[in-house]
Each structure stands twice: as structure tokens, then as C-alpha cells.
Amino acid sequence: MSEMQMALTNTAGITSVMSFWVFVASNGFKNRKDLLVKIGSWTLTLAFAAVTAAIITRGIDAQRFPLANLYESLLWFAWATMGAYLALAKAYGVRQLGWLASLTALLMFLYGSWLPQSQHDIQPLVPALVSYWRWIHVPPLIISYALFFLGGLSGFIQLYQAGRIASLITAAATVSLAILAVVLGTFTSVETAWLQILFAGASLVGMIISFKLLRRIDKNRGDSKLAETYDDVSYRCIAIGMPALTFGIITGGLWANHAWGTYWSWDPKESMALVTWLSYAAYIHLRVHRECSAEKLALVSIVGLLLTLMTYLGFNSLGLGGLHSYGNFK
Amino acid sequence: MNQESEKIYDPKTQSSLKNALASVQLTIFLMSLTALTVLIGAWCPQESASGKEKVIEQFGADTAKLLTQFGITDIYHSPFFLSLIAMLTVNMIACSFLRVFPRIKLLQKPLPFLSGKDIGKLPVNTSVALKGNDQSALTALAVRLSARGFKVATSGDKLLAEYGRFGRLAATVTHIGLLTLLVGVTITSWTGFSGFQPVLLNSHLDFSQSEHSKLWVGKLPTWTVRVDATHREDYPTGEPKQWFSKLTVLDTQGKEIKTQEISVNNPLSYDGVDIYQSSWGLDHIFLNFNGKEKRLDLQPMGKLYAAFLPLDQNSVMIFSVRADGIIKVFAKRPDWEAPRQLGEITKDKPAKLGPVTISLIRVMPVTGLQYKCDPGLPITYVAFAFIIVGVLMAAIPHRHVWVSLETGSKKEGATGNENKTDDMAPSKILYFGGRSVKAKVGFERLIKTLESQMASEFGIPKVEISEAQPTEKLNAGHTNESSAQKKKEHVLAGSSADSNAKDAQGDS
Question: What fold characterizes domain B119-164+397-505?
């Protein structure tokens, strides 16, 4: 990794940490809120610019499209999360999403920085990845994952604004446990079978309880108008993430057909992407037919977030193999 | 959207079977069940992809036996999964023909122009009292809407603008795509075949070992393929960069028909069959030991290949072969810590080890060829195109804006402007509002922006007072309450409504 690239990546990491705390502070100091939000937005814009430059520098250093391993995909994920948030903030003026978007980006930076040196180094491509399909197939997927994350995070704020505090806390704990499973799977040698149970068990139990707890409403919290806004934001993220995911899956099929002679081979990662696709297809059907309350839909978007996490990071770290193991480093 | 679709498809008038098959609850249920099944398939190694051994290795013999019994190790071919897909298909066909496709008709129906009174009932609506008496405000609004991609139609003092009309076809296009995909996949499954064969240099690929589905009605080709040459290209570090094989297609009489060099991502196509470079290796070497020819089988060892030749009970000779054909000769004895290198053999240079001269006759490479015949592929690709276009269209919000320019009368029409026209000579009021199925908040913001633009350019000066409280004028989502009730609500909501409006405006 060149010094330039290192400096840019570090700048992006540090500024995302700063914007996170400024956004958090903006929720605390009511009278300075506008100023703090402005500072937070500018810091995040700086982080976005830095990571954009870092990705470009890495591409120049490597003399190839810089999206070939887990570390590089994390940079892209952080880039997409911040970019999508900035666009949403411009279109909707959604401020509370700011701290969650910065938190997501900085967690990705942190996760990336903990990866072994071999991931940071620029490695030659394996034969299977030498193809122009790589930059057609992968970026839409990473962008769709980032949008689905933001969709789920908007769902969290929507639950808060709708006064569904108990449900919100359970769902947040569920996602935290899922993240814990992924982190343990990546950085420790805990048996993957236990982590699979932790991820799947926590998700299943946690989300069922969250659905049950929707009945408990804290009338003193939240703001129904803002809940409506975040509902709309969540839907927007998913409505744009869905074509990106579909495009990514289908171009993956075209690439696979070109390279391996079959567009679908039930590879675990393919299957996981299909599961994610089906879950968001269900979300869209639920929404179009208005058979669900907005809060239930928010929880469905959080289920989608868990599946996205599984597809993107859980897949390698929890020991599901297959043809897409480029992110593997153990 | 829902109300309109009910006009076309009324569950009450349909038979209960049709109802059940076309129900969205069933869709959601089947989708969830399919997702769960695929999830299990992603978790458990599949026999068809990674072999039975992998399952046993991961779960132990007993659990593996249990998993096999329940069909989990080959879940995508299990009767359960196949019937799930069949049910999803039936459900999709029923939904498509009963609900989705009939919506195309709705697009052809022109919508009426609305009066100020009706505009006041729309989900998002507002009004601006104008200082002038002419139509310039209406024209300006039409220009603004066109600039934002709306298709504008006018009729006298009324205007109707529509955005993202084709977004409404999203479901239709996606469903056509999914049904087409099913047709393509079925054709391939009934007539296509595929397989993998490792082929040695100068040997032939035939299609006798092809795999195909149970309901197969296709036929296998009679021509064969000969491997004329094959080699590996490396990075300077020794990692493989690319594999190449020169292939010749031969007809039944052995006549050469076509010759092509293939590599990963660059297949040969002939007679509807595609042949892919999918793996590469060295299979064996022929060595000459003092004039005696011996074949040694090779095993892949990291970047290299190795052959083992036991000399006696304790010592073994190791031949380490690089992809470019350079062989290093080692010997290993139990009392040595590491194998010792004895010499090196290349194509032109034999190794002399004591009384024995070892020379290389040839290295035999093996190329892994994957082949497939996929007659449904063109249809599948068309389906892919439909699906991509369909889901892209789903992101387009479908919006309508109605505008009406009417002579001011404070009692009727849109709400929230009572005090604006007080003490004024009769003037014109611009009523406008609309609806958006998706991205509602963005639409509210659009109307709000247009309102403030209209008010500052054409509105009477007093408007500025009410501009400080945009939410009061913009009554999203509350359409049927009386103005009095609304006023009360606003008083109660007070400062929080005000801060919402600010929050909603945000960084724009």
C-alpha cells in the first residue's frame, strides 16, 4: 500500500469517527443542533471525498479496477454508505440517519483495518477474476448492500419515531449479536458452527420478539410525521437497492455463463443473494398491497439488513464456502 | 394503486380457488418458505456441487446421513423445493394475469382535470392567492413542472401533469421477465446438457459423460474435440495468471472442422455447445532412467506438482515439477530433517545421480474442460433484460399534479389560506396538489418548493406571513377533516410542527 493511499484511507477513517461524534452531539445539544449537523455533514463529506480518493489511488497503485478482495469491498461499502446518506440528506433532510451512516462507515473501516496484511497488500488477480465483468458485476452489489443497510437503519429511526421503543431495542440487540458473530468469525478461531447458531438463533428469536413487541407503544416518544419520513426513506433505499441487487445478480449470472458455462450453480453466495432478493421482493409486495403497518415493514427492512449482513460478510466469516471465496483469508 | 387494481380484480366476483391462487398472502408465504429453503441450501454443502465427502467432513457420518435422509444435502432437487417453485410459478401466473397485466388498461384511461375543490381533497395540496389576474402563474407552474420531467396537459384554467407514467408498468415488465425466465430454464432443462472432463494433451473430449435432467428429450453431439496444445501463463511471482488450450473440433470421420485457442473467460462455441477452460494441471511425467522409461503420476503441491518414487522402505525420491517443465529432484529419509536436493532436470539437460542418469521424456498436462449446451439461453437472456428493466422501473415514482386557477372565494377549495384573501379585492387563487405512490416525502417537498416559488413570484405580499409556517398550508395526509378541526390541530401541534418543517427542509 502506498503512503498516499494509506494517508487517504486514514483520513477517511478519522473523519468518519469525527462525523459520528458530531452527529451524536447534535442530538444532545438542542440549541446548537443546526450548527452541529452542518459540521457533521461537512466532515462526512470530507470522509466521502477521502475514501473516493483512496479507492482511486489504490486503483492506480494496483493498475486494475480496485475491487478484488474483502478489504477493497469494505472501502467501497463505506463509500456507498456515505454517498447514499449524503444524497438522502440532500433530498429528505434526514439528519438522524447521519450518526448511523457514519457509524456504519467507521465500523467498516475498523473491520477493514483489522484484516491481515495480506488483505491490505495489492495482490495479483486469480485467473477467475481477470475479466471486465468484475467491474460490471461487483459494484452494483456493494452499492445495493449499502442501500439495504441504510434502509434497515432508517427502519430503526422509524421505530423510534413511532414510539416502538421495546421493539427497537430488541431489534438493535439482534443486529448487534449478528455483528458480534461476524466479528468473532473473522478475527477469532471460535468454531464456526457456534457462530452460525449465534447468528441464526439471535436473528430468529430477536426478530420474532421484535414483531411481538410492536404492540407496546410509548406515546411520549417520537413524532409520527418524522416516522412517516423515515418510512419513505427506507422504502426509497430499498426501491433503489433492489434494481442494483438484481443487476448485480444477473450480471453475475452472465459472467458465470461466460466463464464457467452456467449462469446459476447454487453456489452458497449466489443462494444467499437470492435469499436477500426474495426477502426484499416480499417487502415490496407487502408494501404495494398495504397489508402491513409501517412499523411491521420497518422490521421487515431490518430482517433484510440481517440477511444482507449474512450475504456480504457473514458468508465468509461464518464458514460457508463455494466459488465466491475471494474474501477468504484464513 | 390498490384501489384501482381492485376495480379490475375484485376478489368477491372470483371463484375461491382463483382467489387463493392469486392471493398476495400466498406469494409472501411461498417467497418466505423458498428463501428459508435456499438459506438452508446455502448453509449445507450440496452433494451436486461439492460431493458427499464434503458433507461427511463437515458434519460427521451420522449427521450427514440424517441430512441426506431429509434431502437437505441435495435440497435444490428435492421434491419439496421443486413443488415449492411450482406453486410459486402457479401463484405468479395467476397474479400476473388477474392483477398485474390488466393494469396496462389503466394507463390508457385519461384522467380528468380537477377543480379547486377536488384538489383540496388530494393527499398533498395547497393554494396560493395571486396578486395578478392573468394566467402567467399557471404558465410558469407548467414550465416548472415540465422542467422537472412532468408531462403537462392544459385545458383552459386547469392543468394536469404526470410523472413516471411508465413506472406503473414495473410489475408487469418484471412478471413478464420472470415468466420468460421460467420458459427459458424449462427449455434448457428438457433439451440441454452439460459436463466436465479433464482431458490430457492430444486426447479427445466426447460428450458421453454428459449430465442432463430426468425429463430430457434432447440429443448429444456426435463430434469430438481434440486438445492440440495446452499451457499455463504465470505472474512473475509464480501464481497462475491464465490457462490456455488449443482445441480442434473433429466430425465423426475425424475431419477437422474448427480450431481455436480457449482460455478462462474465452470459450469455444460450436453447434450450440460451448466449451470452457475451467481448470488446468500437470497429470504425469515420463522419465528415462538409464534408458528405461517410467511414468510417474503427479499431485498438485501448492504452485508446483510432485511425483513420489519409493526407493526402499525408508527413502523416497521426490520430483518437484514446475508448470514450465523444470524438475527438481529430492530425496527424503526419515532421519533427515528436510528433503535434500539431488539435482535438476530440464528438457535438454538430464541429471546424473551417481550411476543413474535421469532425463525427461515429456510432461503431460491435463486441461479441465467444462461444456454445456443451453438451448433456452437466448430466452433466458431476454428474461434477464425484462427483469432488470422491470425492477429499474419500480424505482420510478408515479406522480400526478393537478392545478386549477379559480376566482378567489375563501369558503371553498383548498384549506389553510383563509386569512390570505381577507380584505382583498376579488382575485385569482391557484390551487394545486397531487399524489405520489412512492417517495411521498420527496413529492411533498416538491409541492412545497413550487408553492413557495409561486407565492414569491405571483402571490400577494401577505403570503409571506404564512410562509413561515409551511406545514400549516401543506396538509399532507389529512384530507377529509374540516378546516376548523385542522386549525385546532395546528394550534395543538404548535412548535413541534414548526420544527418538523425545518427538519424536513434540512440541507436543501
Answer: TATA-Binding Protein (3.30.310)
Residue among A228, A196, A238 at smallest CA distance from A294 = A228
Within 8 A by CB and 6+ apart from B53, the residues are none
Interface predicted TM-score (ipTM) of this complex, two decimals? 0.89
Asked if residue B339 has pLDDT above 60, the reply is yes
Residues of the domain holding A26: 1-122
How many DSSP H helices and E strands does chain B contain? 15, 20
Contact between B391 and A266 using a beta-carbon 8 Å cutoff: no
Q: Which residues on chain A are in Cβ contact (under 8 Å) with B438?
A: 235-236, 239
Asked if B133 contacts B427 with a C-beta cutoff of 8 angstroms, the reply is yes
Contact B441 A259 (CB under 8 A): no
Q: Look at strands B428-436 and B273-289 and give their pairing.
A: unpaired
Q: Where are the domains of chain B?
A: 2-106, 119-164+397-505, 191-280+368-376, 282-363
User: pLDDT tens across B143-196, in order?
Assistant: 999 999 999 998 888 999 999 888 888 888 999 999 999 999 999 889 999 888
- CB neighbourhood size of A69 (10 A): 21
The pLDDT score that the predictor gives to residue B417 is 46
At which of A98, A122, A146 does a domain end?
A122
- In angstroms, the separation between the Cα of residue A36 and the nearest Cα of chain B is 12
Q: Are residues A151 and A293 in the same domain?
A: yes
| A217 plus A330 within the same structural domain | yes
